[in-house]
Write a structure and sequence with these properties.
globular; TIM Barrel; alpha/beta
Length: 336
């Protein structure tokens, strides 16, 4: 059987003309406006050739940032293992053109040292991640969630140590609110390793970052990258007529459940889709442009299950501006 992915990968020569890039906060690091996340569809239960095809297409379109975490799969760790295989097969010659990130904070192994934010856990976890991916360093290492029991100083000192050891070039936090972000940025600034970025959930149905976190990150020179900007696929044309069997809401072990696809939400999605069509965009493209409209935003982190979704998402950058009337119309639909 012939593989659907050609064996020798040469990326598109015009890839950097296909994407736009933004600096993360006050740093010099630029990220693509659209980044690819390996949270879903890159685990041990998924087809490796489809993963290769999506990563290749993403890079062909100038998507240089691939985002992972220690627990991505399923099973946990398998997304990093698969990415390591694909890196070796396709991307090793282009390592210096990539931004590879991973995280630690959620449960990975039994006992008191297998999750949260201690120095012990973070450094051990990153060492495991580097082995799984076959890397000497990652470009960005995140603390994945705030730890209510470990002093923030310890967690931030661990991130500083990781940079000084050469295991990461930059550090970030994830799921930190405005107050936590301010405190983390202050500690890291004093240590001499600035906080690069905060990765948080943000989409039209979940606007918790407005306006406190947006303002905090801008004031502290911290970038913002938004995960689940399409609300786990809800803000796409997949659910205009209910739940398809092959959709994320139709599968087990996903965060989008059938109870999220309510008649009220479907009615809103249809109206939002009408606004998107008036802009000459798909609903997904408008949803991505909507989260990227903020001056504090750095990138929108997409999750895909097929190559066509990579294409559709990347095309969002063709129309990123909104008129005041369009924003009012979107707000009116969301308020219903």
């Amino acid at each position: 059987m012939v593989s659907p992915v050609p064996p020798y990968y040469l990326p598109a020569e015009n890839r950097y003309q296909q994407m736009q890039y933004r600096r993360s906060g006050h740093s010099g690091l630029q990220l693509p406006l659209i980044s690819l996340g390996l949270w879903h569809n890159f685990g041990g239960v998924d087809t490796l050739e489809n993963q290769r095809a999506m990563l290749r297409r993403a890079f062909d379109l100038g998507i240089t940032h691939f985002d992972l975490a220690n627990n991505y799969g399923p099973p946990p760790g398998s997304a990093e293992e698969n990415f390591g295989r694909i890196l070796q097969m396709d991307f090793r010659p282009f390592r210096d053109e990539l931004i590879i990130s991973t995280k630690a904070g959620y449960y990975m192994w039994p006992g008191p040292y297998g999750e949260w934010g201690t120095r012990k856990y973070l450094i051990a976890s990153l060492d495991q991640s580097l082995k799984r991916m076959g890397l000497d360093y990652v470009d960005i290492f995140y603390h994945h969630r705030p730890d209510p029991n470990t002093p923030l100083e310890e967690t931030m000192m661990a991130l500083d140590q990781i940079v000084r050891q050469g295991k990461a070039l930059y550090v970030g936090v994830s799921n930190y609110n405005a107050e936590q972000t301010r405190a983390a940025a202050r500690i890291l600034r004093e240590l001499g390793t600035p906080l690069l970025i905060n990765q948080v959930v943000y989409h039209m149905f979940n606007r918790w970052v407005d306006p406190d976190l947006l303002d905090t990150c801008e004031e502290n020179g911290v970038g913002l990258i938004f995960f689940s900007p399409l609300a786990q696929g809800l803000l796409t044309n997949r659910y205009l007529n209910g739940i398809p069997e092959d959709s994320r809401a139709g599968k087990p072990n996903t965060f989008l459940r059938p109870e999220h696809v309510t008649e009220q939400n479907i009615a809103k999605i249809r109206k939002l889709n009408d606004i998107a069509q008036g802009r000459g965009q798909t609903l997904a493209q408008m949803a991505l442009a909507w989260v990227l409209r903020h001056s504090a935003s750095t990138s929108a982190l997409i999750g895909t299950s097929k190559v066509s979704q990579v294409d559709d998402s990347a095309a969002a950058i063709k129309n990123l501006s909104f008129s005041a009337d369009e924003l009012r119309a979107i707000d009116a639909v969301l308020a219903e």
